[in-house]
Amino acid sequence: MVTPVNMSRETALRIALAARALPGTTVGQLLEILHQQIDGPLTEESLQGVSVTDLKIGLAGSEEDVDMLDTPMSALKDAVRILWGEAEVDSLPQPVRLERMPEGSIRVAIASNNGEQLDGHFGSCLRFLIYQVSAKEKALVDIRSTLDVALAEDKNAWRVEQIQDCQVLYVVSIGGPAAAKVVRAGIHPLKKPKGGAAQEAIAELQAVMAGSPPPWLAKFVGVAAEERVRFAVSDEEEVVKA
Q1: pTM (2 d.p.)
Q2: Total of domains in the chain
Q3: Which tops the pLDDT comparison, 62 or 176?
Q4: Which of 31-45, 79-93, 134-148, 164-178 has the lowest mean pLDDT?
Q5: DSSP code, position 67
Q6: 219-231 per-position pLDDT tens digit
Q7: Which of the listed residues 87, 112, 135 is the one where a domain comes to its end?
Q8: Residue 61 φ/ψ, nearest 5 degrees
Q9: Residue 236: left (phi > 0), alpha (psi -120 to 50), or beta?
Q10: Do 95 and 188 lie in a common domain?
């Protein structure tokens, strides 16, 4: 495959595979559509901004003709997954089915773009890694793609719905309005601007759970109210000593 000028081989490969997933669409046609939808060069990062709606409009020729498009929705979704790099499933960890819920465990969502990494921004991450976590046990129980967010009217609300069974959310960053929606859903957002391995973030959380968890975390793991007060006082004493 000849790589177009100013385009990485990975970007060119994604576009070629995406075109193959769309019946009757050539690489040249898809390139033209992508150039119309993306401001600036075509890169792995910019391809992550392409939605199912973008492809539908591009293939139909105009927004008015979208209803006449006969390309299957499944093909459009497959093409977007490929453009996003989500087709690289071999690099993703495999969730497990728990026979029991660990005592005192919580559910944790991690915004991710690559493998088992905490490297996603809330509003643009490709998926959420979902873990069941207690002070002594942890397990990846689900991986939730955000592909369908393009069809949502309120994209932040849609993302919150995908993790509404979680108590904690780890992100590289999150905007104010989105954070407010997360908090209203009863989820505690935690920012790690430098990101890192998801397992490292989980291990740090477990260490806090096993020690003196802050009141918000103690509440999630089922610590009695009087114990939460004790933890809060203990934390204050440590600050004074420091």
Answers
A1: 0.68
A2: 3
A3: 176
A4: 79-93
A5: G
A6: 887 754 444 344 3
A7: 87
A8: 100, -25
A9: alpha
A10: yes
